Amino acid sequence: xxxxxxxxSGNCLKVKWVADRLGLGYDxxxxxxxxxxxxxxxxxxxxxxxxxxxxxxxxxxxxxxxxAIILHLAQGSDLIPSDAYDRAKMLEWMFWEQYSxxxxxxxxxxxxxxxxxxxxxxxxxxxxxxxxxxxxxxDGLAGGQPxxxxxxxxxxxxxxxxxxxxxxxxxxxLADYPAVQAWIGRVEQALKIAD
Length: 195
Ligand SMILES: N[C@@H](CCC(=O)N[C@@H](CS)C(=O)NCC(=O)O)C(=O)O
Prior knowledge:
Layout: E1 2-5, H1 10-22, E2 27-30, H2 41-46, E3 54-56, E4 62-64, H3 66-73, H4 84-114, H5 124-141, H6 155-164, H7 178-191
Parallel strand pairs: 1-2
Antiparallel strand pairs: 1-3, 3-4
The structure holds glutathione.
């Protein structure tokens, strides 16, 4: 499998972490989004959305969207609960991540860290909704369970940890969310995320 990814992107790292955890072989093709490398004609022929991550499976079929990719890669593994309700709860978190977490927590980080914007100059809506997303995660973990769904890590944890662990780069204070902080440590350990 080929993984087209930019190492600065949490969405891309989700794919790497799942492949590493499951021992799947891959070639990582570094694709610098700041240089427009996901918008070349060759890239667009593979993923017309012009975004990373994208993978090309060993049989030549392409697939995009981080959460779709990790769902495909993890099929049949312990990262997807076998119980139908738990599997749907995992997907509930993953859909929520894409619509209500990543557009705020990841965008704040990108603007501050990679575009040089001051935290004080972030759009208030991004900050408010980012904080609301972190609080939603805090509330979801407040019962003391180790992971988002059940007692073991699932794709929900992979999807949510990607940008939550980088939230301070966008000006959010993880100390305000102690259950989230502890959960990040557990997920990093489970996935053997180094840095
Ligand atoms: N929902 C998509 C988001 C993909 C996305 O926004 N990718 C960004 C990097 S994180 C990108 O490729 N940006 C470059 C561009 O749009 O030109 C996913 O989860 O894969």
